[in-house]
Amino acid sequence: MTVNEYNEAIDLYSDSLYRFVLKSIRDTYTTEDIVQDSYEKLWKNIENVDGAKVKAYLFTTAYHTMIDRIRKEKRSAYTEDLNLPEEGRENNYSDLGEVLKEAVTRLPEIQRMVLLLRDYEGYSYAEIGKLTNLNESQVKVYIYRARVFLKNYIGKMETVV
């Protein structure tokens, strides 16, 4: 990979990489750090990365960096006393978008990742499998489980309106 290809990768993929990470963790500062770390790792491995596969490299790196950060935060959260809300919809929402956003945040991290990659970013099952190191069957199962959870969480449309 050349320096020009690296600069082109920044122009082409930084926005979609930022959106992907932001939808998953919902913290702009952490998202910026993860995207920056991904491009830093790409720079350090510039000689080993093929220019044609730079998008997959960036998304895979960002995904793994994000998972590492989430796990690190979970370890530190276990040491604190937290009052976690109960499962299910506690608040009375009148907007389906708000209900859906709340439901997506309650998904397990792997289900949230594959669902966001499929439904928000438009990746195929095979591409998601490559990004997350899962096979296509596992990706389909996680997406199915996530959609079932969302359906059960949201419930009937009459309860939302």
TrEMBL record:
Pfam families for this protein: Sigma70_r2 (PF04542), Sigma70_r4_2 (PF08281)
Annotated GO biological process: DNA-templated transcription initiation
Keywords, sorted A to Z: DNA-binding, Sigma factor, Transcription, Transcription regulation
Cross-referenced InterPro entries: RNA_pol_sigma-70-like, RNA_pol_sigma-70_dom, RNA_pol_sigma70_r2, RNA_pol_sigma70_r4_t2, RNA_pol_sigma_r2, RNA_pol_sigma_r3/r4-like, WH-like_DNA-bd_sf
RNA polymerase sigma-70 region domain sequence ranges: 11-75
Keyword Kinase tagged: no
Molecular function via GO: DNA binding; sigma factor activity
Domain named RNA polymerase sigma factor 70 region 4 type: residues: 100-150
Source organism, top-level taxon: Bacteria
Family to which this protein belongs: Belongs to the sigma-70 factor family. ECF subfamily.
NCBIfam families: sigma70-ECF
Protein name: RNA polymerase sigma-70 factor, ECF subfamily
Native organism: Mariniphaga anaerophila
Source organism phylogeny: Bacteria, Pseudomonadati, Bacteroidota, Bacteroidia, Marinilabiliales
